[in-house]
Amino acid sequence: MGKPVQNTQLVDFLKIVLTLGIVLRHATPAQIPSDGSVVSTVLRGIVLLTEVCVPLFFVLSGFLFFLNVPEDPASSWFGKKLGRRVHSLLIPYLVANLFAWACYAAAYRWYPGMMGGFLGENWKDPLYALWNGPINMSLWFIRELIKVSLLAPVVYLLVRYTRWWGVLALGVLGFLNQIPLPWFYFSLGAMTAYDPRTRGWVCGVRMNVSPAWRGWCYFVYLYHYVPIITVKKLAYGYSSAAWAQALAYLLVVVLILGALSLVWALLRRYMPRVLGVLIGGK
């Protein structure tokens, strides 16, 4: 594979864009009016455009996992990679779900109408809360990423011996609902990292992106969902007028991004070790 590649600034930039896209998507009202107004058209456009965010996150995850993979990696290489994923994926995933569970438990105890209709009684089931749901619904991506990361040795054999043809075959199977689509997206990222041409193109892009943005992106992704559905329920309940919907949407986006950015900055300044656990050392 040659000299190890360190430049992932393009990946870091894309993570920022995709994180913002996910927040924009989740900030849209549960029911977008179909009145043909400019506001409803824009909101539907945002929903359509942000469909690519999670698939691209899987691609980037596969790329980073296999970046600098040895030509003939020993099992210890995969063991070390998966060990790091315990800290960067599993622990943040569990903590963020426990945070969401605490929010739901508090809401059902003191404000039962606030969260009603989202989960019913499922929040009381530990397996649902931490895995099957999960209770922090946006973290299904992390759950699936944990699953596909465990298949990394198989993915490596696929990209090494079948190259792009194997990835293409996975894509066909995925879109035919024969395998989970995350397997295809992750393998696409793995092949992009394994192929010298595509790897060189991605890592050859130089951008002025601070590594601190990695932590911000991950923190926002992990902790935006419960606050955003709570704020949405308050913001969209006053009027169905187009101008009110537009104002509510902007309010939700600005409030959530502002509040989470403030919490992230305070934790980074005063409790960096706690933040490190929350975001897996990113």
Q: What can you see in these coordinates?
A:
The protein is mainly α and 282 residues long. The chain has one domain (9-278). The protein has 14 helices and no strands. It has helices at residues 9-26, 38-49, 53-66, 75-110, 112-115, 126-132, 140-150, 152-175, 181-194, 196-204, 212-223, 225-235, 242-270, 272-278. The mean pLDDT is 91.
Short description:
The protein is mainly alpha-helical and 282 residues long.
Oligomer: single chain
User: What overall form do the CA principal axes indicate?
Assistant: globular
Q: Largest sheet, if any?
A: none
What is the count of distinct domains? 1
Q: Which consecutive residue ranges, at least 5 long each, have pLDDT under 50?
A: none
Rg measurement, Å: 20 Å
How many helical stretches?
A: 14
Amount of beta strand? under 5%
Secondary-structure map:
Elements: H1 9-26, H2 38-49, H3 53-66, H4 75-110, H5 112-115, H6 126-132, H7 140-150, H8 152-175, H9 181-194, H10 196-204, H11 212-223, H12 225-235, H13 242-270, H14 272-278
List its salient traits.
single chain, 282 residues, mainly alpha, 14 helices
